[in-house]
Write a sequence for this structure.
């Protein structure tokens, strides 16, 4: 694990406990951890987090919400970088 990753994971765990898995703040934290992992080149670790964040945002905020759109775009870029798109 790198410097910021444990802090993000701790924040996500706290958000899950206090706000719930589907709360926008929880989903944004998950997306931020995915972005951090992507920036560190840990693409395989970022993918499931992006998928969780996108799925939750679609259900909670709707597919056209700016947060959902941004998370989907980030996932799309990751998949392209992984050769999966």
């Amino acid at each position: 694990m790198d410097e910021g990753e444990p802090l993000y994971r701790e924040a996500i765990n706290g958000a899950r406990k206090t706000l719930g898995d589907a709360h926008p703040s929880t989903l944004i934290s998950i997306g931020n951890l995915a972005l951090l992992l992507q920036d560190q080149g840990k693409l395989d670790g970022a993918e499931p987090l992006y998928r969780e964040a996108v799925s939750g945002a679609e259900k909670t905020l709707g597919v056209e919400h700016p947060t959902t759109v941004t998370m989907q775009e980030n996932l799309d870029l990751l998949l392209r970088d992984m050769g999966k798109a």
User: Anything to note?
Assistant: Helices lie at 5-18, 24-39, 43-60, 66-81. DSSP finds four helices and no strands in the chain.
